[in-house]
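Entry type: protein chain
Record version: 2
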Amino acid sequence: MIRVLVADDQPLVRAGLSALLSAEPDLELVGVASDGLEALELAQTLRPDVACLDIRMPGLDGIEVTRRLSGPDVEHPVPVLVLTTFDIDDYVFGALEAGASGFLLKDADPDVIVHAVRQVAAGHGTIDQTLTRRILREFVDRRSLRPVAAHRADGLLTEREREILLLLAQGMSNDEIARELVVEVSTVKSHLARMLPKLGVRSRLQAVVWAYQNRVVALPDA
């Protein structure tokens, strides 16, 4: 059972998202918050498998809540899925820097949101596919960001880990990567488990961001 916390300051959105997730047999809604401070307190107390956070909330915004739950200095992070109404938004970039494992637009199809929660709980991370190219270009080019790590992949990753990173950047799942490389899915998972700490990241999404920031992967065409 995947334990989920929902935080949104809009009652209708909060109720709809709660009802959507509660209807799934493998998801358990363990907490609902209407502002950032309440979300932080509930997440730290309840330790959900996934915290679904709105970007703009009173008290503490979603970025600061994410940083306190999933930032690089957090010893026992809570995975965060950020939901936003903005397709290109500085808040989204800030959430990625703060350690979010994924983000979606609030108007995504219900089945996409449910799938994203499962992906984040499994440590896979997710980006709204309609925004991937635009977000990555904005995230890497428009803003002057600190690299996720101080080193490039050259000499840091094994050849196989680098291959997997490049396939991750194409949006491939573990199963798809395994088929592409003709290996077992368990082998892909083992490589990922070793690769993420080398990059100083905690999720597949952050690994992809690292790859673009460090120019290991070429930027998508505009």
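Comment: DSSP finds ten helices and six strands in the chain.
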